[in-house]
Write a structure and sequence with these properties.
By secondary structure, this protein is α/β, with parallel strands linked by helices. About 45% of the residues lie in helices and about 20% in strands. The protein has two domains: about 230 residues, 3-Layer(aba) Sandwich (Rossmann fold); about 120 residues, Rossmann fold.
């Protein structure tokens, strides 16, 4: 069965099929349709929708639901996600699952409501305090807005960790055909850690405060070991990379523009390929290194180069010639703009090679 929906609505559909029991949120452009759809569909299916008084309240409601072992989510856009950072750090420290959807808009500050990808560092590096990570998934179309939201719940409970679906204003507002999921996964077993007011969970404890320094160090080591195990979840997509003389790397809406640029470059006789990470944390480092093989790389993104910097960090000594193709402030690049920047980069690289 299929539906023609907005990306923001697909997020809610994915959450419902994943068994999400509660949505706590506060509307903000360009993410408001997530809350609107949740307000309509969650109560209709006997699930909880609550419009919180603020984004700070919303993330703490997700914390409480997660502590009870319930599947809960929130959604917002960049300034609202900033208000949730303390709560995300608490959730990571207490090892609680929950899903947070960020429909990014331009910043810093209030910025504007146009698309940007400048929340990359905030999501991937951990925007709150402490030595923690969120799991981060980056959809590239409306279908993935649904599917990766559902996957976010699976990973959040598998690793008892907050998971972020990092999208953008274009993906949230665009409409495409969505193929509905075929089944709902079974409810996870949470008896060993959740606090539900039952005899079986009475001895469980949810906390992120450890007043003894050595105890807190031990807790941090446990978290780092968990993040190391989560590296097996890294996912990426490649397109026409086998014979490529240059690769483009992009995620989210930028990957769609980059894919069209690959088509255009091929028409002009340049063998281009696309590398698209689907998980931004854990980052698909091995897939990137294996795919790149020292070839020139153009990183396409809507930020000041946060994704580009992370690419270079992940590649380390394996990095070859690299360039950044970017726009900021809510400005989208055209396919032709990307193509011309790639061609200029290739000319420059060939000149240096001589």
């Amino acid at each position: 069965m299929t539906r023609f929906v907005k990306g923001n609505e697909a997020v809610v559909i994915g959450a419902l099929y994943a068994g999400c029991e509660a949505f706590f949120g506060y509307p903000i452009t360009p993410a408001s349709e997530v809350a609107h759809a949740a307000a309509e569909w969650f109560p209709a299916l006997g699930r909880v929708f609550l419009q919180a008084e603020s984004e700070t309240a919303a993330i703490n409601m997700v914390y409480g639901a997660g502590a009870a072992g319930k599947k809960a989510m929130t959604a917002s856009s960049s300034p609202g996600i900033s208000l949730m950072q303390e709560g995300l750090s608490y959730m990571a420290g207490a090892e609680l699952p929950g899903v947070i959807v960020n429909i990014q808009r331009a910043g810093p500050g209030l910025g504007n409501i146009f698309p940007e990808q400048a929340d990359y560092n905030q999501a991937v590096k951990g925007g709150g305090h402490g030595n923690y990570h969120c799991l981060v998934l980056a959809p590239g179309n409306v279908q993935e807005m649904c599917d990766l939201t559902a996957l976010a719940f699976t990973l959040a409970f598998r690793y008892r960790n907050p998971a972020i679906v990092l999208a953008d204003a274009v993906l949230g507002q665009m409409m495409e055909t969505l193929r509905l999921p075929e089944e709902t996964p079974p409810a996870p077993d949470v008896c060993d850690w959740a606090v539900q007011g039952t005899p079986g969970t009475r001895r469980n404890l949810i906390t992120s405060i450890y007043l003894n320094a050595s105890t807190l160090e031990e807790r941090n080591i446990v978290l780092q070991n968990k993040y190391a195990k989560a590296q097996t979840e890294a996912r990426a997509e490649t397109d026409r990379t086998d014979d490529a003389e240059i690769l483009l790397a992009a995620y989210g809406i930028s990957s769609r523009i980059a894919r069209s640029a690959v088509d255009r470059l091929r028409q002009r006789g340049v063998r281009a390929g696309l590398f698209r990470p689907i998980t931004l944390y854990p980052f698909p480092r091995e897939a990137l290194t294996r795919t790149l093989r020292g070839r020139p790389l153009a990183v396409v993104e809507l930020s000041n180069g946060q994704f580009h910097d992370d690419i270079l960090f992940q590649l380390g000594p394996h990095a070859g010639p690299t360039t950044l193709i970017n726009r900021m402030g809510g400005m989208l690049f055209t396919v032709d703009e990307v193509v011309e920047r790639v061609l200029a980069f290739l000319r420059q690289s060939e000149g240096h090679g001589r």
